[in-house]
Design brief:
Layout lengths: L6 E2 L2 H12 L20 H14 L7 E4 L2 E4 L1
Antiparallel strand pairs: 1-3, 2-3
């Protein structure tokens, strides 16, 4: 298992954490998008491409937790 590094949250992340505490589960800050794809989809190639995007961008792998009563990012 890889080491998990813990970092303090930014001011913006802390603000969103606070708002989530006021309205748990709210989707007010989710940004959604839709794509229209035409033609045959190569599912395995799409899976590999999405996995590589997540692998290259730490922000897509970041999770949030609590440490000593404060929000942290892992």
């Amino acid at each position: 298992m890889a080491d998990v590094y813990v970092f303090p949250v930014s001011f913006s992340q802390q603000r969103l954490w606070f708002l989530d505490r006021l309205m748990p589960g709210s989707s007010a800050y989710h940004i959604s998008a839709a794509l229209k794809m035409e033609g045959e989809v190569q599912v395995e190639a799409l899976k590999r491409a999405l996995a590589e995007i997540v692998n290259r961008h730490e922000s897509l792998r970041t999770t949030f937790g609590m440490q000593d009563g404060q929000p942290v990012q892992k």
